[in-house]
Amino acid sequence: MSKVRNTLGDLNNHLFEMMERLNDDELNDEQLEKELKRADSMTKISQQILQNGELQLKAIKHMDE
């Protein structure tokens, strides 16, 4: 099993790419709906990643006390 090597920088890049796709004036209604669903899923996953990072940081701070 390979390790996931994504970083918060990668997450940031994905979010900006998603925003660019949503801003594409050439999307038809069906394509826009697909991108909106994808954006909703990406947002939920991103929030979970950030919450996990915050929890890890709190644990590290707690261990240092």
Plain-language structure description:
The chain is an all-alpha fold and about 60 residues long. Helix content is about 80%, strand content about 0%. It has helices spanning about 10-20, 30-65. The chain is elongated and about 55 Å long.
DSSP, total strands: 0
Mean pLDDT: 90
Through-space gap between termini: 35 Å
Fraction of residues in β-strands: under 5%
Number of helices: 2
Could you say which structural class the secondary elements and strand pairing correspond to?
A: mainly alpha
Major sheet, described briefly? Answer: none
Helix content: over 70%
In N-to-C order, the SSE pattern is HH
Overall spatial form:
elongated
| Spatial extent as radius of gyration | 16 Å
The parts where pLDDT drops under 50 for at least 5 residues are none
